[in-house]
């Protein structure tokens, strides 16, 4: 069995059961004027991982392995947005409000779109998720089952929120999870470090972490 160099120990990879999930690389989280910036965050921390995320996506495409993209967003009528979620954050600019890139985190709006450099290509699955975890109220589980996927490589943002939440959901569903360290980021470096430590603690209790180059080297020989 092939292995990817990882922490806390090598990840035993099965290439025919492997997929990449790119979490929420959206304009609203990464560009000036978006929702992330409105909360006072330094969005340049997100944009700097774009080259590594792009390399990872291209590596999976070249290997003929599935790439799945997620977007956190809600219906235009806000029927899937709990008041408890809407009421948090910046009181002057909330989910559903009109922002510089359209209504914030609403399906179909410009700011909700994935960054152009990382845009899905024809045939790649896009999951619109109303929650932090990508399994909640989505078809992700069905998609993975249909494709015979049992191992997941994760990239995207933010490490400690939507990425870690989805990894924990996947772990509970029996998937083996690997986080690409340079292809994930947080607005807060200490949060990213803490999330990585929690994920791979106690013998990969949630999953493994690995460097992008090591992942790409492995899938190049898939």
From TrEMBL:
Question: Residue limits of the Isochorismatase-like domain?
Answer: 19-207
| UniProt GO molecular function | hydrolase activity
**Which keywords label this protein?**
Hydrolase
Q: Cross-referenced InterPro entries, in alphabetical order?
A: Isochorismatase-like_dom, Isochorismatase-like_hydrls, Isochorismatase-like_sf
What Pfam families does the entry give?
Answer: Isochorismatase
Q: What CDD domains does the record tag this protein with? A: cysteine_hydrolases
Protein name (database record): Cysteine hydrolase
